Amino acid sequence: MSTARLSTFFISRGILTQDVWDGAVAQSSVVGKNVLRHLVDSKLITAAQANEGFAYSRGWTYRPLDQELEIPEEIIGLLKDPFAREHQLVPVARDGDELTVAVRNPSDLNVSKMLRGATGLSINLVYASQDELTRAVHKYYSTSAEARRKGELATRVVEANSARYTGIGQIADTGEIVDALNIIIEGALRVGASDIHLEPAEHHLSVRYSVDGKLVAEPIQSRSIAPRLAALIKTRAKMNSAALTNQDGAIRHTYEGKDYDIRVAVLPTNWGESITMRLGAETVRDLREIGFATDTESRWRRVLSQPNGISLAVGPMGSGKTTLLYASLAELMKEQRKIVSLEAPVEMNFPSGITQVSINPGQKLTWEGAMETVLRSAASVLLVGEINKEEVAHTAINAAMTGHLVLSTLHTNDAPGAVVRLREMGIRPSVLADTMRSVCAQRLPRTLCECKIAEAPSQQLIRDFGLDAESLAANEWFGPNPDGCRVCAGRGYKGRTPIHELMTFPAEIRDLITEDVPNRLIAEAARRNGMRTLQEDGLLKARAGVTSLSEIRSHILID
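Given the sequence above, the corresponding structure tokens read:
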């Protein structure tokens, strides 16, 4: 970037005076910023003026990609979606055989050559900033945009051939409907979503992805294709496609050479069938990748080495409980122990080494019946998918009492709360004291993107986390960039990081449980014996700049 050409651009156009320019150059050196960045941050020029000046300094033509800009569909259609996403470029105009394309580096001859090969047209490259290109590519070439176009095409096909479809159970398995569904699923996989929600309304079909625990709205689809999509999904999931009733099933979807297990739940509503598709992880994670603090991981591994007893992962839905237990099973497989899992349904298939059983009362395969057989199968480790009712709690505890190491999940807010919940399910205090080995509470706050910014905690957060002046001064605190970046798609966060609260059961706590004392006293004893609370573990992650205090606050209860 030529500083001389930049000064000529701004001064000759009357945007800046020579004195202001000279002062900005000197100050930018002091603060260690690019002079254009300094001018924009100081509000001496606009971002558009900075972009135009940068292009002028390089001898390029600047083509702004305003958010209000609408590029005709016939221009956008000249390039394939994956190509535009990979190279971050957008065609903006066509004049005869010449196509004007906005790119980050108009001097890149390789890009020009690839574009000529892809379009068969003469190429005129113009400059646009990375932020502008990111927005435009997302608008016109993201999976969301592709899904919208596929949905519109499917809508036209369905409406033009509506006489062919005589009932809701008849599948519109035209290429357009199949393409629309595949794009919706693959869009979710591409952005790392955990769930897809298809929610019919009076006049449209809402499509939302759950990304890092937050719902992200995708382009709405036509109401007319909702029944066809529902019928196609139910058929793929081996459900009764003609029945308007709540159903559960699973889909196997292959994308980019990988197989994904997708759990499907269908619920009838006033406007049609609401469908949730939960995207299973591709592979079981290694225990070292769970995100434990070093001391917490060491204590959890010690628990796994116990010959019997019960260990629980607790927290709300979507907090990573099953991921933790699956990683633990993979670790136990190394010890050549016979492992059996009872789940409803099995969430991820191990290729070998574990006997996995999917509970299905409709086929007379119940928790109680399966457990009786398991206890006679010489298994040493048992995974019980979820303790959600008294009979499951009792069978799990009985297995722990008869020499099995039992892993399971439970819905409680914190680790000490698991003791109260099991008491409520009818487990005697003396039995709990004898069988409990550990309870690990977990949450999954979002991870700050690399574009994070320094952000002082609010007064409310200071009160909530009990921060004093010394603690505030000793750490640099960060928050999400409100504008985000290309990496985080403008959200300020990218991915999630776990926080943990691991409670073990030494003699002091076992004695308190036997005495049936209030939960508060058990929690105090757990902290004396090494338990770090969710709030404390989250505070460590915030101090390290991994996540923000506000994000931690949104995941935990603070009295």
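Confidence is low (pLDDT under 50) at residues 165-172. Try to locate this feature in the token string yourself.
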